[in-house]
Amino acid sequence: MGYKVAVAGKGGVGKTTVVGSLARIWAMDGMKVLAIDADPASHLHSILEIPAGSVPRPISEELELIEERTGARPGAASGPFYKLNPRVDDIPDRYSAVGAEGVRLVVLGTIRAAGSGCFCPENSVLRSLIDHVMLEREDAVLVDMEAGLEQFGRATCRGVDLLMVVVEPGARSVDTASRIVALAGEMGVGRTAIVANGVRDEKDEDAVRRLLSSHSLELTYALPYSEAVADADREGRSLFEGDASDVWVQAVRQLSKEILKTIAE
Q: Who contacts 204 (Cβ-Cβ below 8 Å, separation ≥6)?
């Protein structure tokens, strides 16, 4: 089985950039990688260099597929009965796009939070798909999540090898990370890692460590700030080419080593 890593964090910390870059590094290193975009605000396809016109439609919007698999069409007055455990094993290959280095991308769309009162066919498909890729799929899987773990059930969380929480040097970001880690513990996630992104200097890193320490958390790795990387990100250019490449690829390779070491502990 490949590694299963879920990635969360406060909006704006660079979570999607980290997920996409780590996926590409793993693929460069010979892994078969499946990237799951589970954040409605995410643009994971851009980091994987998949053109906008080739981005797969969110699974939650594939109405014919959902009706075929559950027996009910989303939004239709078709009654309360539908399959709770529909077949989903073929979805990652059929409803995906292949990006840089051969990373395969699946876009989920919105998953209603557990406890929200939503019992709907699309949720049945999306939750079953998450369960499948995390518990049964052989690929290395990286999931770009929203801040919380509400998309995951407890069984799925126990199948995650690592929850990686991305923070930036700032109190609000670390506060969010603390809440995510606490919820992860309640949900049964065995390992967590905190990764700081955009760290400019030792002062930044010390600040992150101090803030994390106040929540009894430790920093796993700090990704350095680079003006070339920031410029490329703002302008939508590849972080794997040009001036940004050497700095960023080396940093993400080191992150990969730290993540795999944490999983192995």
A: 169, 196, 198, 222, 225
